[in-house]
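Observation: inputs received (chain + iron/sulfur cluster).
Thought: call the complex predictor directly.
Action: predict_structure
Action Input:
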Amino acid sequence: MDIMRLFLFEDCERNCKGCCNKDWNIKNLPYAQDFEKYDVILLTGGEPMLKPWVVTDVVRHLREHCCTNQLIYMYTAKVTDMMIYHILELIDGITVTLHDKSDIKSFSSFNEKLLKDRHYYLTKSLRLNIFNEVGRLPCKDLSLWKIKDKIKWIKKAPLPDNETFMRWI
Ligand code: SF4
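Observation:
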């Protein structure tokens, strides 16, 4: 499966010590032009959900002009109602990363809202990455999620062989 990791913008309200963007010369990333050869477009930032209007514009453009068959996923650490009511309708899945304990409350509330419409969200790819610092989640039901937990920061983590990193024009 060939994946394009598509960098939207650099803005992020966190300043994670191990942020992989610090390992990249983001400004020198090539601009994405040919999407057809990829199976998956993986939206990333920065924090895409800081500018949800950019996400919706990019996804609509991709769906209309570039990506007829590709799956579109998004990396995020910011779960909001906007994600539930607008973004998740447009894309095929999300990977949510919980960085520390301060993320627990908003994620728990988000998860409860998804569970109310469980059958719809079972059609989406929902992945949950949990850093070691988060500890145990109090959520009773995490069955919607494919979970990777006890994650640690990896310095200069290489891009997987099947991924290409490019930026949105
Ligand atoms: S949330 Fe992600 S993009 Fe933002 S600083 Fe942390 S690792 Fe980097």
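Thought: report the result.
Final Answer: The first strand starts at residue 3 and ends at 7. The mean pLDDT is 94.
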